């Protein structure tokens, strides 16, 4: 069973009295009184009757009406758990964890007993668990092992309006499961009213609307477009704080960096203001440590105004009581697939009108409120989309395609997507999988592909593990992959940059950032996983402990897949670089100048990042591969490894060939031939589809 730092900290708090924070309301009322006060409680019996009578029910209701926390408990009270678990999916990890903690408190059990959660690499459930919160990705992967989802009696697909990639795929999968299991109940919840689409998709399922209880929210637009949304937000926060009546503030920012900056500047300026009443500024984003996340639910001391600066997680997933003022920057970070560089990138994008209205609504939950939009009214009407583009239409689909293939969906063009992804994206994903050797020329899963799907990893990382077995370094590669799946390994405190940089450099392996990570892990092991060693070397102990957990889970999967654990001779890590090369040869780059490279297939510039060990030690090999390209002031390669030209030709023969002066990429005759083959695959699929339609 995986250990979880979040679950541990929650249990410690539970022992001390309360897991989740206490608002003014919650301090004066018992938990069961609070539950009865929620809008959903008043319609509980009607709702349960509706669910008993219908296999699928779509539920809409304002955020905060109790959908996420109450439905699962009602279903349990009605006895559905006699036939299986109640599962509730969330598009966000943080929401799954936080809500499970709250519900465990309401039920009065330890987190992980009757109520638990499961997110990638972290399963806090047990035999006893009857209410299970999880990310949509986790349920999707469970359907691989348990195609009829037999362990569940009810599934609540929460936050369906988010239209996350995995939720969208689950819709298609669930529709098939429901045909086979007439006893299964599906409840789809949405915070917005555009639920007709879900209703139609499930053959006219009833829509149950929870009557809301909202107060009017006054809107104020900016008169001009601000240059800098951090600065604009800081000014607005302080203006509200200095001039407006009591009430907490919720600010919607883009991401971690901007949130931290905003919190820092507000706190600083508030100190300098004369007669500034006390203000408690709290950040909220998914990578924030769990104990700090729960702070947003805690009530501030008497006379202190609370100001939460959050990503769009506070838009619908989490509800904080007591918000009277909303400050909306009008932006969020979205994962967008960039076909030019063939990968996903997080981009700061204007939100849609639907998001903006949802944000505004957060100000009117308990009393009339005000929403300040830091953009013009014109921008709202002319520049914002009416609603979001579903993730499935804007991201890379390799992962999903691989998963669906192993669920037996042969032709993706036929899968029941609520909004089908662009055909080009499907074909591009098929192509990427073919390049990785996961599917063959006819689009069928290869034996390697079958193994790859078992890993909850990007296909390229799964491939790395599989190749490593053949190269005799699966032990090392499992560590590299684990280290890649945890956030931030190195710690760089603000006032000790030089000292921490020097400590980091001591770990550098000249040829590779991946090997540098491996080196850190190996040394940590050698020092008995000591936390003091981590502090001394400016390494996040939490990150390493998490990497160790992930590694253990990967080793489990490897055992199940009969992948032998092999380790290379001490420090003989060239083969590890070769394994890395085998999964990232699409990101191969050739040297052009000092620290400057170009991607060999796209010709796009790719520079060594100053934090790279290659940069630090001034090592400039002819060829490198990298994990991803990040676009800031320049195109930077993140996580770089030096490779041999011959490896590229050997591992990526469809792209590279050996020339007298080394490997060459580009459109070789072979590459052209393969491209033609892919084209004919595509035609065949289209023809097959036409044929099927003609028959039907
Ligand atoms: P919905 O899903 O309809 O948006 P929820 O079930 O999430 O509504 O929220 C119902 C109530 O539970 C809200 O008043 C919210 O403030 C409270 N709540 C939810 N999670 C927590 C938590 N972690 N700590 C304290 N209160 C919470
Ligand atoms: Mg909810």
TrEMBL record:
Where would you say this protein principally sits, based on its record?
A: nucleus
Instruction: Give an example GO molecular function.
Output: RNA helicase activity
Example of a GO cellular component annotation carried by this entry: nucleus
**From its record, what is one biological process in GO terms?**
mRNA splicing, via spliceosome
List residues of the Helicase C-terminal domain. Answer: 236-408
Q: From which source organism is this entry?
A: Cafeteria roenbergensis
Protein name (database record): RNA helicase
Q: So what family is this one in?
A: Belongs to the DEAD box helicase family. DEAH subfamily. PRP16 sub-subfamily.
Where the record annotates domain Helicase ATP-binding, the positions are 48-211
State the top-level EC class. hydrolase
Compartment annotation = Nucleus
Reactions catalysed = ATP + H2O = ADP + phosphate + H(+)
Q: What keywords sit in the KW lines?
A: ATP-binding, Helicase, Hydrolase, mRNA processing, mRNA splicing, Nucleotide-binding, Nucleus
- EC code(s) of this entry: 3.6.4.13
């Amino acid at each position: 069973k995986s250990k979880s730092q979040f679950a541990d900290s929650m249990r410690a708090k539970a022992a001390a009295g309360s897991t989740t924070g206490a608002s003014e309301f919650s301090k004066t009322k018992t938990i069961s009184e609070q539950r009865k006060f929620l809008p959903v409680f008043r319609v509980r019996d009607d709702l349960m009757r509706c669910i008993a009578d219908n296999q699928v029910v779509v539920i809409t209701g304002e955020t905060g009406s109790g959908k996420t926390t109450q439905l699962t408990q009602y279903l349990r009270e009605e006895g559905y758990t006699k036939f299986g678990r109640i599962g509730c999916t969330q598009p966000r990890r943080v929401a799954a964890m936080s809500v499970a903690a709250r519900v465990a408190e309401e039920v009065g059990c330890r987190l992980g007993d009757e109520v638990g959660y499961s997110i990638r690499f972290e399963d806090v459930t047990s035999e006893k668990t009857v209410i299970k919160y999880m990310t949509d990705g986790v349920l999707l992967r469970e359907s691989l092992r348990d195609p009829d989802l037999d362990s569940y009696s009810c599934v609540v697909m929460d936050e369906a309006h988010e239209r996350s990639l995995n939720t969208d795929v689950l819709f298609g999968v669930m529709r098939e499961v429901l045909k086979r299991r007439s006893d299964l109940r599906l409840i789809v919840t949405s915070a917005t009213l555009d639920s007709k689409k879900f209703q139609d998709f499930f053959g006219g399922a009833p829509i149950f609307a929870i009557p809301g209880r909202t107060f009017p929210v006054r809107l104020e637009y900016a008169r001009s477009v601000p240059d800098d949304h951090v600065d604009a937000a800081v000014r607005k926060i302080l203006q509200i704080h200095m001039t407006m009546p009591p009430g907490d503030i919720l600010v919607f920012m883009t991401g971690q960096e901007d949130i931290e900056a905003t919190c820092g500047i507000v706190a600083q300026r508030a100190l300098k203001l004369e007669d500034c009443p006390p203000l408690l500024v709290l950040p909220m984003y998914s990578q924030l440590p769990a104990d700090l996340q729960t702070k947003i639910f805690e009530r501030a001391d008497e006379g202190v105004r609370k100001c939460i600066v959050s990503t769009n997680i506070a838009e619908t997933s989490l509800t904080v009581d007591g918000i009277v003022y909303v400050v909306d920057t009008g932006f969020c970070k979205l994962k967008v697939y960039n076909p030019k560089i063939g990968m996903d990138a997080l981009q700061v994008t204007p939100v849609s009108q639907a998001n903006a209205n949802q944000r505004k609504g957060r100000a009117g939950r308990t009393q009339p409120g005000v929403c300040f939009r830091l953009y013009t009214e014109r921008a709202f009407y002319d520049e914002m989309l009416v609603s979001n583009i579903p993730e499935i239409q804007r991201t890379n689909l390799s992962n999903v395609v691989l998963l669906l293939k192993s669920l037996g969906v042969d032709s993706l063009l036929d899968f029941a997507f609520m909004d089908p992804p662009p055909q080009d994206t499907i074909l591009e994903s098929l192509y990427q999988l073919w390049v990785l050797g996961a599917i063959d020329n006819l689009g069928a899963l290869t034996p390697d592909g079958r193994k790859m799907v078992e890993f909850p990893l990007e296909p390229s990382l799964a491939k790395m593990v599989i190749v490593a077995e053949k190269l005799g370094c699966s032990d090392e590669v499992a560590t590299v992959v684990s280290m890649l799946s945890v956030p931030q390994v190195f710690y760089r405190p603000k006032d000790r940059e030089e000292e921490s940089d020097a400590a980091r450099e001591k770990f550098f392996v000249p040829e590779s950032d991946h090997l540098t990570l491996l080196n850190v892990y190996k040394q940590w092991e050698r020092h008995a996983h000591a936390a003091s060693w981590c502090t001394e070397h400016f390494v996040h102990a939490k990150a390493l402990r998490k990497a160790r957990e992930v590694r253990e889970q990967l080793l489990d999967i490897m055992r199940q897949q009969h992948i032998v654990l092999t380790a290379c001779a001490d420090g003989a890590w060239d083969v590890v670089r070769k394994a890395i090369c085998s999964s990232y040869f699409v990101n191969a780059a050739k040297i052009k100048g000092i620290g400057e490279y170009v991607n060999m297939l796209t010709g796009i510039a790719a520079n060594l990042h100053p934090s790279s060990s290659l940069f630090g030690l001034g090592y400039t090999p002819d060829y490198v591969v990298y994990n991803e390209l990040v676009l800031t002031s320049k195109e930077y390669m993140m996580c770089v490894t030096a490779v041999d030209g011959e490896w590229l030709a050997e591992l990526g023969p469809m792209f590279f060939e050996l020339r007298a002066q080394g490997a060459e990429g580009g459109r070789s005759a072979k590459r052209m031939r393969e491209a033609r083959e892919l084209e004919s695959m595509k035609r065949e699929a289209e023809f097959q589809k036409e044929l099927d339609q003609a028959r039907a």
